[in-house]
Amino acid sequence: MDKHFLTPLFAPASIVAFVGNADGPGGQTPAGHTLREAFRAQRFDGTLRFLDVRTKGTLEELAQTHADLALIALAPGDVAAALEIAGRIGCKAAVVLSSGIGAEQASQWRKIARREGVHLLGPNSLGFQRPLLHLNASVAGPLAGSGPLALVAQSGALTASMLDWARQNGVGFSSVVSLGPHTSVDIPQVLDFLANDQATHSIIIYLEGIADARRFMSALRSASHAKPVVVLKAGRKPAGNEAAQTHSAAIVGSDDVFDAALRRAGAVRVRSFVELFSAAKCLASRYRPVGKRLAVVTNGGGPGVLAADWINEIGLDLGKLSAPAQKVLQPTLPPLASLADLIDLSEEAQPAHYRAAIDAASSDSQVDGVLAIFSPKAGIDAAATAKALADIPRPMNKPLLACWMGDSSVGKARSVLAEATIPSFRTPEAAVGAFGNIAAFYQNQQLLQQTPPPLSALAKPDIEGARLLIESVLAERRHVLTEMESKSLLSSFHIPITRTLLARSPSEAMMIATQLGFPVALKIDSPDIPHKSDVEGVALNVLNGTGARDTYVEMMERVARLAPEARINGVTVQKMVRARRGREIYVGMVTDEPFGPVIVFGAGGTMIELLNDRAMELPPLNQFLARRLIERSRVAETLGEWRGAHSVDMEALEDLLLRVSEMVCELPELREMDINPIIVDENGAISVDARIVVGSSSQAVAAHVGNAVNGYQHLAIMPYPARYRREWPLAGTGGGTYIVRPVHPNDAQMLQALVQGLSPESRWFRFVSRFHELPPTMLSRFTLIDYDREMALVAVIMERSVSPDGTVLESERIVGVSRYVTNPDQTSCEFSLVVADEFSGKGIGSRLMESIIDVARDKGLAEMDGLVLANNPDMLKLVRRLGFTVKPFPEDPDFKLVTYML
Question: Where in the numbering of this chain does the ATP-grasp domain appear (predicted)?
């Protein structure tokens, strides 16, 4: 049951092809002709048979026919019959090669496939290729060469173009999958398969749209944790949002949100067709840089300066040799060589000089990667210089990229680099951009590791009070909260605000101002005015009671003239924030389609749109993510010591972002939010003004029910489910306790230690394998999971040890794991269990199984099943005691199929 559900599609042992007959009554479509020719050109490794839906004799033979995959290249009128036949002969997957099929007809075919238990790729698809299997189940052209890349594209034309480009550039593939509109098998499912495909080392995606952000993010996060993923997305320029009611909504475009989503998923985004393959080639090299400092080794100042300029342009740092490294290297180089910034070897540089410089840079802690640039020089052998790079022992601990400039004189050198699998580029800018993609990938991997819970460790917010406030606004058929209501909502989540009171007359304004103390600010309060300053509805630094009274009158008259239709509640009065050197920032929230709520951070004040400073992150946040969000903004440069001002209280600013994250997670009714300005200085942060837009939410009811799993469906990333953490007594004479909690990405090494410490018998019972430890891809897949579609609970004990200096140290140890993975039917799941041998019989296995059953039931699943080796009596005894039904497994007598109805 470990075999992926799409294995019959992408790794079939037997295929039936419905391609029609050129001489028959239905004729043969162009796709059918192309598919038949593809199989003639390349022999499939498995069994292939052609069937005709219109031939009676063929139908009589169905009882003797069986296949994993059906390929259908017929006229639309014959596709339904072919799908039914495919189901009848036991096909688990089918590909419909067609174009121009509308949504209604595609839906009908999906229903037939679902009824027959067939996973359907298509319609509007060119099909797929699996070069390692010599399988060309496509009409995208000749079979691609074999290689470690997987290509998934939502455009048939781009798929064919990429294959043509790849053939000319020697790029090979493990898989090529073409997806179009209305396909049943979609990108998340394909990504899920490729993440577990041993032949795939990196994945490139051409993307035009996303139907389900949660499923897309789930699959993308899982895939990019296991291997590099590079995405090229079309439609980068969003349409304007003229109806935006807050600053955040006005300045955030969907393309910016997509960037934020890819960062959080640990993937890399590129902007061009060629860059897509360049990035994938570099990432497939499995370099592990820890920074963005790129050293440039060159034999020409001009190319080196071009590289340095581009390093600065795209936000990288020029790697410079440390003083000790310079001192050692300088005597070995030509007299005119310079090491001040660039490693300029001068025009006299020989192959040995390149080798010495690259060795020095590779071993220098101040350098994260090396770019070797060669420009043709009289008397210098370009190929011999390339050979010096090729002879460097592999693997290098840092990325090495090459740029051999020119054309005819460096062709042989480029071949030498290609044979050595050193990424080579024709221009310095392209090479620097490729390193930038490597650096971005591993920076994004840090974000991927973050799985924060919906609520932080700060003081518990008044969630129920906040929900009641929103319900009262929606009950009045309003969507825009007043300033008073917005600030009350912020207060519910302990976000610091200025004290604000509403005045409904000039006299009230004067009395409130006197009580608060001067100076004060007066602002118009209206649900119909998005931006108060647009109607001159803000007055600052009012210094006395008379001024407050007169300002009230003048403001009401002005607003009535400039916005005659607006409803006016009165004027709010608040004490001016006294922060002489405080910085103005803003924190916002906008709802994106399809990614849901997004948190925005940047410079605030009245010129917010003009400054256009925006950094974005998908919730939930933790302190690490909040800090990275701040760092990505331009205003971050002013938050330290700046022009005589003290550094701001960064911890208070991070806490404010965590509070906003809590609001977004717990209140699915939030649509837009604009907290601007927030005054931040060395003493903390305080929100001066806020505007919030809410709307009815289908998730609101679920969110009210005890933080149930379904309560966070409005988020693209499922939060860490901390609510499943429980502490239990440890059975046995020693006593003590252990904790059962959901797995976390940081648990990888502890999980590996658990597997390494198992007896060979226990390891065989769990994995049906003789390996001593989990392979890296499997370890990644087991620890970074999507809590929406799977769950893993670990049993953790605390162990004590004594250091050499006598200090008592405590460390966690995982002693058991239970998990389930939801099946494609979305109603059942498959479970597994393993417990450390020395903890067998202490009740941990039973507790882990009971806990994972509770989680699956909470998720709404109906059935849990699994395979247990028939010679594993202890496990069979446990599942029977828990109420599982035990039956023979028809496909393999060595296993028992155990089932539990939830």
Answer: 487-523
pLDDT in tens, 286-339: 666 568 999 999 999 899 999 999 999 998 999 999 999 999 999 999 999 999
β-bridge mates for residue 684, sequence order: 681
Same domain, 174 and 213: yes
Task: Evaluate whether residue 870 is within a structural domain.
Answer: yes
Whether 432 maps to a domain, the answer reads yes
Q: In what order do the strands lie in the sheet with 93-97?
A: 47-51, 14-18, 69-72, 93-97, 119-125
Q: What is the pLDDT of residue 594?
A: 85
630: in domain: yes
Q: Judge whether residue 85 has pLDDT over 70.
A: yes
What sections of 265-346 are H helices per DSSP? 273-283, 301-313, 323-329
Q: What is the mean pLDDT of residues 523-535?
A: 86
How far does CA 592 lie from the centroid of its chain? 16
Whether residues 594 and 466 share a domain: the answer is: yes
Residue type, 394: R
CA distance 813 to 531: 55
- Do 234 and 180 contact (CB within 8 A), yes or no? no
Q: Which of 691, 718, 745 is the C-terminal boundary of a domain?
A: 718
Q: Tell me the one-letter amino acid at 254.
A: S
Strands 863-869 and 828-835: parallel
Q: Give which of 465, 466, 502, 496 is closest to 482, Cα–Cα.
A: 502
- Calculate mean pLDDT across residues 860-878: 93
What mean pLDDT comes out for the span 377-390? 92
Burial string for 775-789 (b: 16+ CB within 10 Å, else e) reads: eebbbbbbbbbbbbb
* pLDDT tens column, 650-660: 999 999 999 99
List all residues 6 or more positions away from 182 whose beta carbon is below 8 Å from its beta carbon. 101, 102, 103, 106, 107, 123, 124
Which H or E run includes 464?
helix 463-475
DSSP three-state, residue 130: strand
| 699 pLDDT higher than 60 | no
Nearest to 167 by CA among 205, 140, 207, 206: 140
Q: List, for residues 468-492, the tens digit of each pLDDT value.
A: 999 999 998 889 898 889 999 999 9
Separation of alpha carbons 851 and 79, rounded Å: 46
d(CA 513, CA 124): 67
Q: What pLDDT, in 10s, does the model give residues 335-383? A: 999 998 999 999 999 999 999 999 999 999 999 999 999 999 988 999 9
Residue from 676, 796, 703 nearest 743 by CA: 796
Q: Bridge-partner residues for 615, per DSSP?
A: 601
Instruction: Report d(CA 123, CA 119) in Å as an integer.
Output: 12
Residue 393: how many other CB atoms lie within 10 Å: 5
**Which of 663, 690, 718 is the last residue in one of the domains?**
718
- Residue 247, phi-psi category: left (phi > 0), alpha (psi -120 to 50), beta (remainder): alpha
Unique residue bearing structure tokens 């014959």: 78
Query: For residue 846, what is the enclosing H or E element?
Result: helix 844-859
Same domain, 420 and 475: no
Does 694 lie in the same domain as 781? no
Q: Are 461 and 492 in contact (CB under 8 A)?
A: yes
444 within a domain of the structure (yes/no): yes
More confident of the two residues 184 and 580 = 184
Give the count of domains, the chain: 6
Residue spans of beta strands (DSSP E) within 808-879: 808-822, 828-835, 863-869
User: Three-class SS of residue 24?
Assistant: coil
The boundaries of the domain holding residue 829 are: 722-901
SS3 209: coil
Beta strands in 357-505 (DSSP E): 369-374, 400-404, 424-425, 500-503
* Nearest residue to 494 (alpha-carbon basis) of 677, 682, 711, 662: 662
596 plus 456 within the same structural domain: yes
Q: Are residues 103 and 219 in the same domain?
A: no
**Are 52 and 18 spatial neighbours (Cβ–Cβ below 8 Å)?**
yes
Same domain for 667 and 788, yes or no, is no
Rounded Cα gap, residues 579 and 570, in angstroms:
27
pTM for this model (two decimals)? 0.85
